[in-house]
Amino acid sequence: ATPTAVMVGTGVGASQGVLIKGGQALESAHKVNCIVFDKTGTLTVGKPVVVNTRLLTNIALQDFYILIAATEVNSEHPLAKAIVEYAKNFVEDKENPAWPEARDFISITGHGVKAVVQNREIIVGNKSLILDQNIAIPSDAEDILAKAEGLAHTGILVSIDKELVGVLAISDPLKPGAREVISILKSMNIRSIVMTGDNWGTAKSIAKEVGIETVIAEAKPEDKAEKVRDFQGSGYTVAMVGDGINDSPALVAADVGMAIGAGTDIAIEAADIVLMKNNLEDVITAIDLSRKTFSRIR
Ligand code: ADP
Ligand code: MG
After folding, report:
1. What is the pTM assigned to this prediction?
2. Which of 89, 121, 193, 211 is the most buried if burial means most Cβ atoms within 10 Å?
């Protein structure tokens, strides 16, 4: 492609809300034959909501939610925001909820949070966090978790003073059109993969819904980058699509990093291409543009 063609390609992209940071990014995109998608906020809407609560002891629902909101209000995680939002249903003043004070708050990245509220130790997080604290998970809680995951919900466990007291199901639906995008990519001979820090059950259910066969779950940020390098090692030219801080190492590692425009600044900085309209369809727009600019008919 001539420098003019590259300029035209980048310009057309920009006019469609696909920001391509330079000729190299535009060129690499036409060779992509494998795309790794982050789950939360990329394939899904990214605005999770609490859809179900199951209590395992005789704690009152209101007390339960006030204790966990007091803990989660200290976390920036989208799941934490969903929990705090839902807990507002249990207070008088929804605009200015006065959560009790939390002491010794800690956030365990990719697992959950912990704090002391009203002299009780509250833990909110995934199964591995609860097991790491040597807290027993009764079999009915396991059943509730498995059901939630089968519905592609994320199951969150809550313990108070080392006793498991409840299970929440949080739903974050697929973006409209996600399934079609995956099917079009398949017809373009591009393999799609789901990669997430969320658990295997939920990840597999979402993958099935969207039509993706390969799933990588319970992945820490560095694992995400390593997986991208593994696919490159087996001969793929890899694009990574993500929105979070936890995706940035993988965005950098990929041949083409694509960030969702609504994502975090760190992801946008790490990416080669930014999808300003937050549409998954624009993954195809970017690749089409690159193919038109770089693959000539011989
Ligand atoms: P993702 O890649 O989907 O953005 P993360 O790596 O951020 O996922 O988190 C992985 C898992 O850790 C979540 O699915 C959840 O089970 C648990 N988790 C993380 N942060 C929190 C939190 N603040 N409250 C409850 N659970 C959490
Ligand atoms: Mg994400």
Report:
1. 0.88
2. 193
